[in-house]
Amino acid sequence: MAMNASDNNILELNEVTVAMVPWPEHGHLTPLFLLSRFIASHNIPVHFLTLTARNQDLKIRLQGVRRNATDKNLHFCDLSVPTSESNKDVLLEKLGESICENCHELSKNTNRLVVIHDCLMITYIGDLHSIPNLTCYFFHSISSFVRYSTLRQVIDIVDGDQDKLIEQLGDEFPTVESTFGPNLEEYINEEREWKLSSGVIMNSFRELEGKYLDSLAIYAENDKPLWCLGPFHMLLESSTDFFNRTTQHVCLEFLDRQDVNSVIFVSFGTTTTLLQEQVNELALGLEQSDHKFIWVVREADDERMDLENNYEGKDGKIELPAGFEERVEGRGMVVRNWAPQLEILGHPSTGGFMSHCGWNSCMESISMGVPIASWPIHVDQPYNTVFITNVLKIGISVWNWIRREEIVPATAIEKAVKTLMGTPEGDEMRQRAVELRNKIKNSVSHGGLARKEMESFISNITNN
Fold first, then answer.
1. How do residues 116-138 score in pLDDT, each as one tens digit?
2. PANTHER family, per this entry (predicted)?
3. 260-294: pLDDT as tens digits
C-alpha cells in the first residue's frame, strides 16, 4: 500500500529520512516508537511504518502526554493487509511488500534513507536491497544477556563466567529449545547472512550489560558497529515526558494514598492469558499476602497479532473469585485493560513488580529502581529472569522455569510477595535496584555515557 495522500506535503527533499520498521507486536513497537521520537527531536523526519491499528494505538497512548515540539517530525504511515487472510506468514509478507513500497517512495525524496528495522522483519523486507541510497540498521528488542546466552548455546562461544552461572543453576538455566524453539539456529544463520545491515542497535545501556555487549561485538556482529541505546523512555528531551499528563489514571490516585514502597504492581504484559485456575491461585496468593497491590487483569492480544484491533479493546473476560475485590477493597486494586505501567513503577508508593519479565518491563522497572518478582511465561523471559535474579540480584523467582507446565500455587505467590515486600532480603534488592536507577539517570543525563552513545548514533546516520 502506498503512502497516505495526507503525507505528501511532508515529502520534501531531505538530507536524511528515517523509516522505522517494527515487528507488529506491542513489546516490539514500544522501544522503536520511543527511539523514533528521540530521532525526530533532532529535526530528522521519521516515518513509523506499521499497521493502521498499531499506529492508532500508539496515538491513543500519546493522548494526554505533553508532547515535544519536534514531534512534528514524526509521521505515522498506516499500512493495511487483507483481513480475509488467516495465514500469519502471508499477512506478514503482504505487510513486508507494503513496507518496501513505502520505503521506495520515501527514498525518492531524500538524499539518504535510513531504515531501522526489527531483526524479525528480515524475512519480509528483502526488496529493500534495490534502493540505491539506503542504509539499514538491525534492531534487537531483547536484552544483550539474552542474545549472548542464546548465541552461546547455538554457536558454542566459550565463556568462563557464563559456564559458572550455568553450572550454578543446572537444569534451571533456560535452553533454546524450551524458550525460542527448534528454529532459532536457522534464524540466526539467516540473520548473520543478511547483507543490508550497516550496524546493530541493542535496547539497553552499557552500565547494565557492558560485558555482554563487548562479547557480542566480538562474536556476533561481524565487525559491524554496535550501538547500545536506551533506556529509550529516559532519552527523550524531557525524561519526565510520560509523567506530564493532563489527566491521571485512577490507579495513580490509589497510589497517592499509600505509603512509600508499600504496593506491589502485578502485570504480565500483552502476550499472556493466565488459565482460570491460575487466576484463582494468583488472587488467593495476593489476598493471603496481606500486602497492598495493583493487579492488571487482561487477556493476551490475539495470536494472529490481532491485526485490525487496538490493544485498548481488551475488556477482559477473565473472572476473579467471588467476593475477591470486596475482600481486598482499600488494600488492592484490579485494573482491566491498559494501565500506565511506567508511571506506576515510577510512583514512590510502588515497591515491587510481579512481572513476566519481558525486556521492556525489566528496563522500565530497573530504571525506576523497583525490584522484580519474576514469573516468566515464554521466549526471552526465562533468560531475563536469570539476569534479574542471579546476575543483577534485584529480584526473586516466583516459580522455577523447569516447572513451567504446573499451576503456580497461591502459597508460592504469597511467599514471593512477602519476601519482596516485607523482608530484609527484599529491602536489599530494592536498594540495589535504586543504585542501578541512579546509574541510569547519570548515564542518560547530558554528558552521560548513554547520552553520548545516542548522540554518536545520531551523528552516524546524519553524516555518513
1. 999 999 999 999 999 999 999 99
2. GLYCOSYLTRANSFERASE
3. 999 999 999 877 788 999 999 999 999 999 999 99
Average pLDDT over all residues of the chain? 87
Q: Is 71 a catalytic residue?
A: no
Catalytic residue among 47, 57, 78, 118: 118
Question: Which residues, other chains included, contact 56 with Cβ-Cβ below 8 Å and sequence gap of 6+?
Answer: 310
For residue 183, what is its C-alpha cell?
Answer: 528454529
Note whether 437 and 368 are within 8 A (CB). yes
Is 118 designated active site? yes
Contact indicator for 118, 22 with CB cutoff of 8 Å: yes
Choosing from 28, 291, 347, 356, the catalytic residue is 28
CA distance 17 to 40: 10
Helix, strand, or coil here: 198? strand
The answer to whether residues 262 and 294 touch, using CB atoms and an 8 Å cutoff, is no
**Interaxial angle between packed helices 359-367 and 26-40, expressed in degrees from 0 to 180 and rounded to the nearest 10:** 50
Nearest to 353 by CA among 242, 437, 247: 437
List beta partners, residue 295: 266, 334
The neighbour count for residue 447, using CB atoms within 10 Å, is 8
- Cell numbers of 133, please? 541510497
pLDDT at 165 over 90: no
- The dihedral sign for the CA sequence 231, 240, 68, 95: positive
